[in-house]
Amino acid sequence: MRRLLLVLLASFCLPAFAAGDWKPFPYDQSAFDYAGDKLRSAWPRLTRGFGGYPFPDAAWVTKMAAAHPDAVARTVAAGSGFSGKPEEAQAYAEKLQDVWRKVFRGDFAQARQDGLALGVGGQVPAMFAQVLYAMFLAPAADKQQLLEEVISYTDQAGPLLNADPIAQFGRAYAKARLAEELPVPVVLKRGYTSDIPRELDAILAKQPNQPFALALYGGYEAGVIRKVGKLVGRMTYGVSADKMESYFARSFRASDDLPIGHYEYANALGYVYGDDEQDKALEQLRKAVAVKPINAMEALEVAHAKQLLQKAEAQTAQR
Fold first, then answer.
1. DSSP letter at 37?
2. CA-CA distance, 122 to 81, in Å (whole number)?
């Protein structure tokens, strides 16, 4: 048995990107305190971008452990202290909830460390924290490696994470962000142009109204058009301005108060229409900055939207 656990642990060990020198969250965190029962109360709103996500209480942990014995084996191998027994579920759930509190507060390095220590179940918030850090705080030289590691962890995590909407979205999001920055031949070689729509389709097949997935799909359509043009995009990759518009419209119908959705749409308008929809893009950026953040992620998104808005307004003034 010991040998089996060592094999499982070895199979799951990946080159880890050191989080010890991650930059701290740069803004006031006092409004993002979800200690005790406040986390459960706020959970539906905190996870609204995912179209709702089960609260990780003892009942949920027990259910997931019963459905995914492979994940339990990996969790045991990680030395988490959880062996899948129902009587251990409450203690494990409390540790998992604490990881999520750190994510929402902006303690990303600690969330990553504590989440990975909980095995596969804790990997979901750990990698979500890593995506947020990569996108908003990491030095440019580190961003690609951080996102690639998220993809690798999720690919090797097994059925539990490949059925988890947050893990699925995190992987697709990482690929989409990499696809924006990598040269087209590299993107094609890695298969991202087929992976991203396939993975988003899988999410939307289960959650047709997930705001994050819909907005990412719209951004993907616009990103392809930006790189290869409308004609090649439509004929080769099946993307179009109409589809881009439809995905964002569906996302906003599901939830209109997510800052990332509005600034992603503003970016998409620029990619697809250039300056022709500048006024509409400015309107979207103003909607993004008007959102009152309820967690660290949204605070970073609003700050990013403010930078985009300032730049866009300055460019407009010069015309």
1. T
2. 12
Q: Domain spans of the chain?
A: 23-163
From 171, 177, 232, 229, select the one nearest 198 (Cα to Cα). Answer: 171
Percent of the chain with pLDDT over 90: 76
Q: Report the alpha-carbon distance of residue 227 to residue 208 in Å, rounded.
A: 27
Given a contact cutoff of 8 angstroms between Cβ atoms, the answer to whether 232 and 224 are in contact is no
For every residue of 172-234, DSSP letters joined together read HHHHHHHHHHS-HHHHHHHTHHHHHHHHHHHHHHH-TT-HHHHHHHHHHHHHHHHHH-HHHII
Q: 81-91: per-residue pLDDT in tens?
A: 888 889 999 99
Q: Is 183 exposed, middle or buried (0-12, 13-18, 19+ CB in 10 A)?
A: exposed
Residues 6+ apart with CB under 8 A from 316: 278, 282
Q: How far apart are CA 302 and CA 123, in angstroms?
A: 26
Average pLDDT over residues 25-54: 96
Contacts of 102 (CB under 8 A, 6+ apart): 108, 110, 111, 114, 125, 129
Instruction: Report d(CA 310, CA 204) in Å as an integer.
Output: 34
Question: If 0-12 CB within 10 Å is exposed, 13-18 middle and 19+ buried, where does residue 263 land?
Answer: buried
Q: How far is the CA of 35 from the CAs of 41, 94, 140, 215, in angstroms?
A: 11, 11, 33, 30
Q: Give the 3-state secondary structure of residue 28.
A: coil
- How many percent of the chain have pLDDT more than 70? 94
